[in-house]
Design goal:
Blueprint: E1 7-8, E2 17-23, E3 28-33, E4 38-43, E5 49-53, E6 58-65, E7 68-73, E8 76-81, E9 84-89, E10 97-104, E11 110-116, E12 124-130, E13 133-141, E14 144-149, E15 155-160, E16 165-172, E17 177-186, E18 193-199, E19 205-210, E20 214-218, E21 224-229, E22 235-241, E23 247-252, E24 266-270
């Protein structure tokens, strides 16, 4: 049987599509359009699509269980239950800084990064949500982006887009703390800038490349194992979706409102490799 390449779902034309999230409780793929200030939800079973609009950037989301989502809206964190927002944190970020990518560790702690609105280096941080407080985990970052944890919980991986690298940290899962830097994967030899990422059941990472038109699978030494090429240049993030987590989905952007027909849409690719289950956020 002939294997097909990535296929566009034909459901969106995002300015800055990002943060795909699979929620198994309702078989739904969610993703955000940061600049378009929208949350998108795609029902996997009947292919229906819902768009919810906000008056600020929608930066990232996490599964909060029972159909709810933890959502980063510009500079605050809230729980979205149906169409009702409940604020979790609104303590104030530094001037000209907003939230960016975020994800839960294997125990359900939520980590979220920030970026300067003009992407100036050194203004980004990575935070951990502790109850109603944000704790700084890393500071002095350029553009805090993709996150992943290994299956044993002993390593956390984090992308700083401006540095074009994945930092691999030793991780204390019980405490939710970084123990130290293990090593760094230098991705500067690959086209584009590393953006979001996911990790599969074999502890290999899949990294989306902005202006690189691809998602690249790597092992934890940095060796390239597979390259998925897309027909659009601005690939932003990825996750595994579907009941068996065997479909790689990839978000893209259309930042200049150009006339590429599939730019800003979500792409899917059937895979022989499974992803890892979505972790539900727990309020520690």
């Amino acid at each position: 049987m002939e294997r097909r390449g990535p296929e566009a779902l034909g459901i969106a034309r995002c300015s800055l599509g990002e943060g795909p999230l699979w929620t198994p409780d309702n078989d739904t793929l969610h993703f955000v359009d940061i600049d378009g200030q929208a949350l998108h939800s795609y029902d996997w079973n009947d292919a229906s699509h819902r768009e919810r609009n906000f008056d600020v950037p929608v930066c990232c989301i996490a599964d909060a269980g029972s159909g709810d989502l933890l959502i980063a809206l510009d500079t605050q964190l809230s729980v979205l239950s149906e169409d009702r927002l409940t604020t979790v944190w609104s303590g104030g970020l530094p001037a000209d800084v907003r939230f960016n990518d975020g994800k839960c560790d294997p125990t359900g702690r939520f980590f979220v990064g920030t970026t300067h609105r003009s992407f100036e280096d050194g203004h980004g941080c990575l935070y951990r949500l502790d109850g109603q407080d944000l704790t700084v985990v890393l500071d002095g970052l350029g553009l805090a982006n993709g996150l992943a944890w290994t299956s044993d919980g002993q390593h956390m991986l984090h992308i700083d887009t401006l540095k074009r690298q994945v930092a691999v940290y030793d991780y204390d899962l019980a405490a939710g703390e970084l123990v130290g830097l293990s090593h760094v994967l230098d991705l500067s030899h690959l086209p584009g800038m590393p953006d979001g990422m996911t990790i599969d059941a074999e502890d290999r990472i899949w990294v989306a490349f902005w202006d690189g038109g691809s998602v690249v699978r790597l092992d934890l030494s940095g060796a390239v194992l597979q390259i998925v090429e897309l027909p659009v240049p601005h690939v932003t993030s990825c996750c595994f979706a579907g009941p068996n987590l065997e479909t790689l989905v990839m978000t893209t952007a259309n930042p200049t409102n150009g006339n590429q027909p599939d730019a800003g849409d979500v792409f899917k690719l059937e895979s022989e490799i499974r992803g890892t289950p979505t972790v539900t956020w727990r309020a520690f």
